[in-house]
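hiii so um. not sure if this is the right channel but i have a protein structure encoded as tokens and i wanna go backwards to a sequence. like what aa goes where. can anyone help
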């Protein structure tokens, strides 16, 4: 429990303290974008996390709405459930997503990846 929490704190501090745009060498680039020139569903996620940690929610949404609206809440929920169980405070809910939910998440992620790369840009806020 302690190691997981410490690792998350360190990663959170790095993303808070260092802007991925200002120091790109400290952060990983997207191999999919480098190979194809297209945005993957995760492109802009690091910059969105930095903006979110600074309270700039609209900026974070404009960088990667999927990461802000889906990945971040699921990650926070999973960690909270894990922490409650690990500290024996409460049985804590488990994050056991069934096949239907995992399929829905995969479909949403693929649709997000497709929509943000359309040439006519129906939703300009989808491209980082």
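sure thing!! here u go:
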């Amino acid at each position: 429990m302690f190691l997981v929490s410490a690792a998350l704190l360190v990663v959170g501090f790095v993303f808070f303290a260092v802007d991925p745009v200002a120091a790109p060498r400290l952060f990983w680039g997207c191999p999919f974008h480098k190979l194809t020139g297209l945005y993957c569903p995760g492109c802009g996620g690091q910059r969105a996390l930095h903006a979110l940690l600074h309270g700039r929610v609209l900026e974070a949404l404009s960088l990667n709405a999927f990461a802000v609206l889906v990945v971040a809440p699921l990650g926070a929920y999973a960690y909270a459930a894990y922490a409650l169980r690990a500290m024996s405070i409460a049985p804590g809910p488990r994050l056991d997503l069934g096949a239907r939910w995992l399929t829905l998440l995969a479909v949403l992620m693929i649709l997000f990846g497709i929509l943000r790369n359309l040439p006519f840009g129906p939703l300009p806020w989808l491209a980082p």
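oh and The radius of gyration is 16 Å.
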